[in-house]
Design brief:
Radius of gyration: 27 Å
Distance between the termini: 72 Å
Shape: globular
CATH architecture of the largest domain: Beta Complex
Largest sheet: 5 strands, mixed
CATH topology of the largest domain: Ferric Hydroxamate Uptake Protein, Chain A, domain 1
Strand content: 15-25%
Strand order of the largest sheet: 2-1-7-5-6
CATH class of the largest domain: Mainly Beta
Order of helices and strands: HEEHEEEEE
Number of domains: 2
Structural class: alpha+beta
Helix content: 25-40%
Number of strands: 7
């Protein structure tokens, strides 16, 4: 009789071990998924912190909802002035980069006696430095989530593409300190 009960108990034990292994795998998957969600939320927090223009819309892909190729997202890096990075949106297709900058909620001035050469954005730097090669507002373009490309045209001559990202950074010609949204 012992031999009859033993084989019956053995398959049940194997099933129990298989079930326990599957349950362990499911628990591990749940833990990893939870960790991924927490990490995703933690990584999303800095992105929200960089928005701040009056026209910024952080809930959308890029500031303008570039998922449907409308508008131009504008990124302005004020890090040299300890003011972070601001992201705004021109919801239209602007005629040039200066209009995009303005419609995204940023003000600008030109270098005196050099129209077209940006001196300040949102009153930074406080004193116009005449735009020497060592520190000036550099102008950039990118596809959403792409790589920054230095502009070969001035903002008054460049025609931004719908859904693209415009970038501005003060310094020696380096791109904004965040990837294009």
């Amino acid at each position: 009789m012992k031999s009859l009960t033993r084989p019956a108990a053995h398959p049940a034990g194997r099933c129990r071990r298989a079930f326990a292994a599957r349950a362990g795998t499911a628990r591990a998957a749940a833990v990893l998924l939870g960790a991924a969600l927490i990490a995703g939320t933690a990584m999303a927090a800095p992105a929200a912190a960089v928005t701040g223009s009056a026209r910024a819309t952080p809930a959308l892909a890029g500031a303008c909802g570039n998922a449907h190729k409308k508008g131009v997202t504008v990124v302005v890096d004020f890090s040299k002035f300890h003011n972070g990075i601001k992201v705004g949106c021109d919801p239209t297709r602007p005629a040039n980069g200066l209009i995009a900058l303005q419609k995204a909620g940023f003000s600008y001035t030109f270098v005196p006696r050099q129209p077209g050469f940006i001196c300040t954005i949102n009153n930074e730097p406080k004193k116009c430095n005449g735009a020497p090669a060592s520190a000036y507002w550099s102008y950039w373009h990118a596809k959403p989530h792409g790589k920054w490309m230095y502009s070969t045209l001035g903002a008054g001559s460049y025609h931004p593409k719908s859904g693209w990202v415009e970038g501005w950074a003060f310094g020696s010609g380096k791109p904004p300190g965040i990837s294009p949204p």
